[in-house]
């Protein structure tokens, strides 16, 4: 009875249930995957087909709406023709348009000043009401763009908008047409939309402008719907699904009318669109249910045939687990289960034999383990004792005493290693007098057991010295009464520290566990010895640091004193720098009002200010001004005149500084420039003419630029060479550097005679620069203030190649000097 109960429980909760569930799960998984795959494919195909169809309808409807608006715009445009420019003609044209187009409710004529001239509807007419539309977007946008569309508005459930068009011709009149948008719903009839689909048109704010029979109410705000909000947003993208006004899920297709900012939506409830998918899911569920029933029946039959031999194996394993190794399993299934039963019976026999010998081996291992634990305890105590002191003189005797204790030997020797001499020196001994003289006190590392052990890093055991003839100190050790030696090196990653020699009077092998124990003891001893040496070194360095600290403090006091001196020097240097910066700033301020050369002479204190005293000297004077500037200032705005002057002065100033001329004064468009005063140059006339040629080219580009802006200006220059009185003029609060003499008058008169883009120079100037220029003679000039005609030349261009040759020759001459 108990066996039957156990078998029933096994069938219910063991492999039986697992086999049945595995088979059922496999069948259900295959059917479910197949059904889900087909359903997903059908869903994607159905959704794609519906979405594509609605997209085509949405695009077609949007195209029709756009065409209708464009047609309204075109029909409105003929009443804005330039030929319809009188009130009676305009009124007749408006009346015909109202009769022809039912969607147009009212037409308004606004003149170029934004005043209403005519307003005509089917029920009333208003003439010259002068209503102000100058700030109305319908007027301003139509004037700027030509055509403007207003935002849609609603009168109850009737949507409307305005189309504004600017009139043809040069006038800026505008016609505003009020459009009734009710006709848009005609494009969303059942024929165009479909049986289960509804459609609607929204403006840029999401308000419904037109709707199909089953669509939302006209004028309703749908901006909160996800598909509408996504499309009307900046850089919006259409969604494939969304919600309707009642919150139900829908499939949606949409397109936009960029010109108006409207959007057309075609939607179908998701429940209706996916009804075939529901039917397919129901068929799949029925098929899975039928497969589940068949799989359960088949699983039960197969599981019952497999579980009988498995139960026999299970019962045998349970009895074997209780220690009954005589149990044998009898299975005759002619398959793997029978082979498994035979192997199980063989394993039971081997386990019985193994168990018989196990108790003996466990007793032996227990004794070995107890001995190892004892050694470890001793090693722990030894390590604690060895590491208890940081004094090397105290550590070495402790190491020797503990080594004797561990090994139970007769004597222990501890050698230290001198790496420089490659020698081992006796430093401590236990069980023997270490002060005894002999060759054992110092041992060379080469050809010795200690050197070999240190080189290998492993202990070397000699169980019987009498049997070994080539070991150094063999006779000395044997005369002392010792016959067995164990050499343990003291080494670590830093190198060789020494060696421990264990001496035993009786010959015989050293146990391996003792050798391993001494190897571990040596590692601990090396650590203790290293720590002791490190402590000694640290203590010595501490005393050295204390001595160095006093030196550093003395140096710190000296450094502090030097720092105070450095601060005083820095303070003095800052005062000098601040004074020099002040002088530089004064020079910069003077350079804004005076020539840089004059400003630097005034600001400097090296004696050059005598050059500013009144004296007579030879100078080259350059005068230049703009042709037609007076007429230009009378005909243009002051701001534009100032802009031209700024560009003109900026171009001249850059070239004046480049050639190191002295800017004497500005007088509107007239500029006077001195060369050779106050700073003197040997080639001052050459500098002046070359600067004039470059000015002519630079201002020529500016005059082309001004001509493009509608300003007709030219540039003329005059240059003269002669003696003048140079120095400061003015009064104490306002001094200027100036040149006075006929040479300045001559340069001014030559500038007056120069035409646009012309450089006129005196014959004396031409004589100074003749090798470097191309020029032509002018007729003798009769100048105001001069009794005799003046010989003059026009400079055509500067010959750069000649200039380079002359400059190179001059440079070579200077080098020879």
Structure description:
The protein is an alpha+beta fold. Helix content is 51%, strand content 21%. The protein contains 20 helices and 26 strands. Strands 19, 20, 21, 22, 23, 24, 25 and 26 form an 8-stranded mixed sheet that branches. Strands 1, 2, 3, 4, 5, 6 and 7 form a 7-stranded antiparallel sheet that branches. Strand 6 (158-166) and strand 7 form a beta hairpin. Helix 2 packs antiparallel against helix 8 (275-321), helix 9 (336-386) packs across helix 10 (392-407) and helix 10 packs antiparallel against helix 13. The longest helix is centred in the last third of the chain and has 80 residues, at 512-591. 28% of the residues are buried. The model is unreliable at 1-13 and 808-817 (pLDDT under 50).
Average pLDDT metric: 80
As residue ranges, the low-confidence spans are 1-13, 808-817
For the termini, the CA-CA separation is 138 Å
Rounded to the nearest angstrom, the radius of gyration is 59 Å
SS class: alpha+beta
- Helix content percent band: 40-55%
How many DSSP E strands? 26
Strand content: 15-25%
Shape: flat
User: Could you give a short account of the major beta sheet?
Assistant: 8 strands, mixed
Treating each run of at least 4 consecutive H or I residues as one helix, how many helices?
20
